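Budget justification aside, the reviewers requested a transparent look at the raw inputs and outputs of the sequence design task funded under Objective 1. We therefore reproduce one unedited record. The lines immediately below are the structure tokens for a 116-residue chain.
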């Protein structure tokens, strides 16, 4: 069964850091581009970041560039999102997804709340 399971969300103060993880199973993780997408309360989906199948090319939304870092550990079949200098507007459910423009597999999401 193809599956993505996110973890690492929680409550953090503005300016703080969190690292999200996404454990993949049921497919060849290292051959697939992966993405992070978020949904803030009451808003639509927003693409955050992507990494190509080889792990060498990354891209970021302007709103997170310089603060977030996407990476993979192919030995662990895991995708990461290191989030630094968090702001209240980063509050959202974060989803990992397989693919770039039209992700075909999604995780269940993990909630990140940035608040003092």
């Amino acid at each position: 069964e193809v599956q993505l399971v996110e973890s690492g969300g929680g409550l953090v103060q503005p300016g703080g850091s969190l690292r999200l993880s996404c454990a993949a199973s049921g497919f060849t993780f290292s051959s697939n581009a992966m993405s992070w997408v978020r949904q803030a309360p009451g808003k639509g989906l927003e693409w955050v970041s992507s990494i190509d199948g080889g792990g060498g090319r990354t891209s970021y939304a302007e709103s997170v560039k310089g603060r977030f870092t996407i990476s993979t550990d192919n030995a662990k079949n895991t995708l990461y999102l290191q989030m630094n200098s968090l702001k209240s507007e980063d509050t959202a459910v974060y989803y990992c997804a397989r693919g770039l423009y039209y992700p075909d597999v999604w995780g269940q999401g993990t909630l990140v709340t940035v608040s003092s």
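The radius of gyration is 13 Å. The chain has a mean pLDDT of 96. Computational costs for records of this kind are itemized in the attached budget.
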